[in-house]
Design a protein that fits this description.
With 696 residues, this protein is mainly beta. The chain contains 7 helices and 47 strands. The strands form 15 sheets. A 4-stranded antiparallel β-sheet has the order 1-3-6-5, with no helix packed on it. A 4-stranded mixed β-sheet has the order 2-8-7-4, with no helix packed on it. It has a 4-stranded antiparallel β-sheet with strand order 9-11-14-13, with no helix packed on it.
Length: 696
Amino acid sequence: MDISFYTHNRNTQRRSTGTATCTSLRMWKTIILLFLLALWAESSQEQTSQDGTRNKTCERVLIRSKRRWVLNTFEVNEELPGPYPQFITELHNDKHLKHSILFKISGQGVTEEPLNVFTINETTGEIFLHKPIDRETYSMLRVNFDVMDKETHKIVDKTLTFDLEIKDMNDNKPTFKPEVLYMNIPENTKEGQLPILLQATDRDEKGNDNSRISMRIVSQEPALPKISLDTSLDEKKQKLAKLVFSGCFDYDKVKTYKMLVEARDHGIPSLSSTATIYIHIYDSNTHAPVFTDLKFNTEVLEMETNKEILRIPVQDKDTPNTPGSRAVFAILKGNEEGNYKIETDPLTNEGVLTVIKGKDYERTTLTELEIGVENEEPLFFCVDGKPVNPIPKNLNRSNKVKVAVKVIDVNDPPVFHNKIHIVHRVEEEEPGEVLYTPTVTDEDSDPAKIRYKLGEDPAKWMSIDPQTGIITLAKKMDRESPYVNGSTYTVVMRAIDDGEPPGTGTGTLVINLGDKNDNAPYLTCNPSVICGNKGDRVRVTAQDADVFPYSGPFIITLDKDDQELKSMWKFEHTVSEILLISLKSLPYGNYTVPVKIADQQGVQANDVLQVVICDCGSGTVCKNQLPRSSTLHISSIVIILLAILLLIALLLYCFFCKCGINRKEKIHNFMEFLQDDGIQTMVIYKLEGEGSCKTT
């Protein structure tokens, strides 16, 4: 019987006795009832019934369960050196007071991974360890303990589940990721943190000395500038650090640094590892470009443009073809009018000075330019191992130079006061009229010695006086000529001086040509198609090479005063179009309609309109242009009849000629031939060996 439960019944009995004020009979009845109830509960607990559900319910309701397991401290150090097996702990359970029991274990380390770690003496409850455990693989193992009846092998107490903690040993050294680190750093890196992150980890248990890491720099080659560790970045079990430095890197002296960094834990014994860092310094702009000379001189021809006139070399000690050595030139003074530009030759790193707008010798004979140079990358300056900013002024003076540009006088060409002169004329004017008298000056030559000639006169309508340049009309001008562009005719003239070499100036004469009514109108829709199956009219259009008011709208009429023609056709004029109307149903065929066309000014022209009347089907194009009927001229009919009669005569002559056969036989044979031919049979002449035919 459960002792706690029995005590509870005794207390209940005393309370019941103390509070009863009735007869002693009721007290004894209560005692007997409680005694019987206790006996039933005890038997209910130990009874093994087939109705498991009912027994569980009774136990849950009537019995307060207590744990009877006794388990000594159960912890295991990782990586125990042995020998194995090693005794760990011993289990006890008070069920052995009423049963002959056996102990069983299961779970991790027994029936689950890692296997074959623990065993138990089933009789005594002693637990043994059979091999070392790696805490970094299994930091905790969950083991189940059961007590069983030795005879029935049935579990007689609740399963005890116990979490076995593996105690950490300092068996892992800190490791760097990666162990070898390569980094490229520009020479002009400013003091402070370098973009290098060191990371070390330790697999031992976090939060204790075994995984607490300290870093230090073991060695640095070369020693300057001094590089140290910033270890303020810690995250959980990881150890993070950055490299910091003070001073300047000097690419010209040292190009590669090698550092050895150690990470050490605080376990016992302490473990450590190292990482190797290679820092490669690449060149930056630490040397300003310097001109190779103090002053440069060059010259340019007067009014010359788009020509290279000078190349300016510079020296730079930085690595070639890098932003720190590539030169950038600029004109600082003397180019206020924008006559020059300077660019960098990417192959030679020289400054290329070019004139882009000509200088007039009569205004300027000498120009002095101030040109500066710097690099694409800003200059980084370091003195005594410390960066200097701003750059000293005396250093800036060395990257400026003076360039003297001398303007060489050349023969200036003659200049037309009016480079473009416009005149208005009407076409078809008589030749001989003076159209233009130019005014030309020349600063370098005698104007009297200038000679003139035409540069462009595509229609050859002009003539020019070689001494004065006067342009005279040589031929009548036609506004409708293909050389006239939009009523404009252009003539280019040249003035040539006597310089050495001769200078040539050009001027342009633009003639705006007015129109005359010198072109007759003409039809533009020829031939025209009338779809006889759809209508009896067609649109007629005309055109005139002249322009308004010497062109349309046009008036179109029948040209001949022919009554038969008037009975067939008529023209109808509307606001927007002119229509030719068929006055009666005409057979399909081709027709010619003589017309007369007049423009706005009454200038007339005769033309013939070709009209096709046909069946267009469902479209607008003739489907079949063969006429329904046709008429032949009388002479054609007579010729056809005479040809037929001649053919008949020739046939009769051939059949009635004298060939050794009498006339009756010939007639008979001819009739038989006709009859046989009608029924498609062979004709037997039996005339072999006969002589030639003779007319009888």
